[in-house]
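ERR on first pass: missing label on line 2. Operator R.T. fixed the label and resubmitted. Corrected input:
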Amino acid sequence: MRHYLIRRIILTVPTIIGISLVSFVVIHLAPGNPVDSMTMLDPKVSFEAREKLMAQYGLDRPIYAQYMDWVRRIVFLDFGVSYRDGQKVIAKVAARAPVTLLINILSVLLILLIAIPIGAASAVRCGGLYDRFTTVIVFIGFAFPGFWLALLLMSLFGIRLGWLPVQGIVSLDFDTLTAVGKTVDVAMHLVLPVFVSCVGGIAGMSRYVRNNMLEILHKDYIKMARAKGIKERDVIYKHALGNAVLPIITILGLSVPGLIGGSVIFESVFGIPGMGRLFYESVMSRDYPVVMAVLVIGALLTLVGNLMADISYSVADPRVRYDK
Amino acid sequence: MDYSLKGLPARGDCLIAASIADAITLIPMVASDSASHELCSLIYSGLIRYDKDLNIIGDLALSWEISQNGREIVFTLRDDVRWHDAVPFTADDVLFTYHSLIDPKTRTPYAGDFNKIESLQVINPYKIKVTYAQPFAPALSSWAMPIIPRHLLQNEDLSFAKFGRQPVGTGPYKFVRWVTGQQIVLKANDDYFGQRPYIDYYIYRVIPDPSTMFLELQAGGVDLMGLTPLQYNRQTQNVYFNRCFNKYSYPSHGYTYLGYNLRDNKFKDKKVRVALDMAVDKQSIIDGVLLGLGRICTGPFLPDSWAYNKGVMSRRRDIPGAKRLLAQAGWADTDGDGIIDKDGIKFQFCLLINQGNSLREYAAQMIQQQLKEVGVMMRIQSIEWGVLLGEFINKKRFEAVLMGWGLPPEPDCLDIWHSSRVREGEFNFISYKNEEVDRLLEQGRLVIDRASRAGIYQRIHSILYDEQPYMFLWIEDSLPIIHKRFKNIKSSPSGIRYNFTEWYVPSEEQKYGPRHKVLL
Amino acid sequence: MTNKLFVTGMAIVSVLAVMVLMAPVICRYDPVSINIKQALLAPSNAHIFGTDYLGRDLFSRVIYGGRVSMMIGLVAVMIALITGVVVGSISGYYGGVTDLVLMGVVDIMLCFPALFLILAVVAMLEPGIVNIMVIIGLTGWMGVARLVRAEILSLKNREFILTSRALGAGSARIIFKHLIPNAIAPVLVSAVLGVAGAVLLESSLSFLGLGVQLPSPSWGNILMEGKASLGVCWWPMAFPGLFILITVLGFNLLGEGLRQFFLPYKV
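pass 2 clean. output:
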């Protein structure tokens, strides 16, 4: 087991290097150089001052040297300084990451809690009214464009009904609420974004569970279990469901980038100060250090997610011990 | 007789203003965005400021004397001013501000006026003498520049100093806190040398989406915001709004224009530019995009300004006339495809606009349709603001752009129109050159007498409209909406904010009391 | 059940395809023709979906926008397919170091949220229809590559392959004649579902302002313009969103129906 773990972790190193390379290259695809957009409509910035700025940011060195400099620094979590307002990049990201992480973790939990029972029930009652009904709902949910859903919900719950706040993560008077009050306030603000974030996931996951369950329910060992006289309920829940759920761990790992990416949309619509919106704002203002940092950190989170998924999977299923 | 004390000025309460963008830094000369400027105007003071009729009055300066034909100004400063950290304000702060501005290391777009200063001498802690190399008419108005504290910024790099996020000024409001991306809180300065504001707190809330901002306004989370024309016309006409809010509309201090790259062969010929001006119906754009809430602009001055030439009339839309002019310039549709051409080249060009400005996007689409009628093919490309400036405008890699200029009360616009201001990053990015205009611009700076200056700038106005280096488009209305509980708001040529320190909420109507949850 | 999914999906996709192809016939108005006197009119007989802020007919804009959105979806998926099949085949067939390196690249690319990469690249270069198609395609080939590779690995040592080799058939021939046709099933399903995903991505991009440029309509940018009238009129936001939903639904149903069709057991 330890060998497997060590091997698995070592194998992530080339992936991490690859992540840093891709992040770096993607940013430097842009024509021109960042100093120009920094010295906006600024007639006083002379040629010498521009050169000085470039030297300050290390932009006058050849590209591979810039890459090495950057990599050397990010190992110590020093992602540099934002081009836009001079704050440390790591500080900016750290300030915004918790919100996105919170929403994504809640989404994942909800997806698991809701999708698995729905999917399993669907498989068991395959072809019946319940199955058909949930299929319709699930497909529509999966096809719903996130930004449209967000706008519709905002319109309905915010404008017409006024039940839920539609902006930001906390109310104006947050600082003054009790601990309970604070939790409730944040929770109210999270209802709509989390819902938008996990709708697609619930739909997809429940469908996956259903299909997996169906496949397993037709397998020989299930027929054997039934033949042996094991109670139907145990057949379903102990044997079939247990095996159907295992691969979900891997699927969850694969869906992390989707969740993080989707956060750009609803964070923009609901004005949530999270990593997705930070990324969008930084991309739009060519704040390269922040863009690179968010790309790397986002990819690393996915990597960690996948790693944990793989490890849990191998713990749960002793048949799996090698890399693909 | 009503002896009640209702409706009388009272201290207290809080005004929550909303904006779509967060401020970038609260060091005034480093920031060029309007959000930062709005806050800096409350936190800092300049030597002078403008009153409601756009006349210059003293702020940190008690009085001044201009002598030697405008080459020298001696400012007598107030001696009762203290920074928000209680350190007294002196002339050394002014000297420091001046040095920071002209320091090549400081990234500021505002140094131009201060580079004209030959010397700045501190005569005593409350008197300074500023000497200009030549008479410089905009000199006095340039001293509206906020003054920054020497004792806190002496050895700091202004572009990166932490001070930008925890500013200390001399203005009517003190900085309390800044939650990045969400809000900035300011508190009234009890020690303010002028009228201590009635409103205790000012909260600047960042809400990136105009529809959400409007929702918050309705929900009571926002007291003051700028409405879009649609919101002004269609969403605020009902009983609820009339009961709880006051709306205002007045011309904003700026204009929108379509600038041609005059180095491009297509736009070199004046006939072409005039023809295009005749092809575009600006009033219909104002009616369609701004829903009528704006006026036609014919030159780079505010219509109420003394520099504005009321004799310059906007050309009427004339499609046949435009086609004729274009034909005279050699452009005609020789191959019958609907697009005019000349020497085998079709008249098509790309208009750049900045991303996210929906009014400009709509206007561009209307202009595109109108130009099609004279056979001109225009494409639209929307680009993020910083990139637009850095990659396309500064490097003159464009054919035409749809942009705007803010207009201060001082009409001097040499930096925009003079033929020498064409280096990369300078404001004459269209490469305009007219010797008479150059001469007039220079003269406008040397002459101090307002009547003579008026004649000079009005002549500039007339030439610029005739030559069309820009297609001058519109001046849009500012459309603020404010909760009714705020009293003493008066509309004037300078807008409504000039007397912000005199706004108040009568005590019986105050919403946010001193112990209110929002402010702790 | 299988039939129902497939049939419904096919029906939706066909109707959409017909509508979009017949655009010049069914649309009464020019989608880019501005008419400010008709701004923001509610749906009526004259304008089935109403008009937008500049008085343009929304029905025409939605239908023509559908052309653009669907075309981008299809081309992007084709790019993803070709890239994925090529990479997956080479990787699966040759194995060894090639396989390791190519799958390493797949792993790396899968770590990035697609929308992040796309946003970054499109904002760095100019937004435009061609760029979007290529970028969406290049961020979506990994799944196909893995599928193809897996199929090839499982088929590689089956009898008929060994027989072919024994008979002297070359590598390319084996790949094309035997391996790929057998791998088609999951790839086809993936492609159909991919179109749905690509349409969603394109409309998200256009919604953020980085997709199809105005005045060319696309479902995403009609929604973007419609957002400004949130609270005043519902129709600029309702119809494009509905069409995206129906399109994505149709392709998902079709894909799922196909998947069930290829299953070895009856459901």
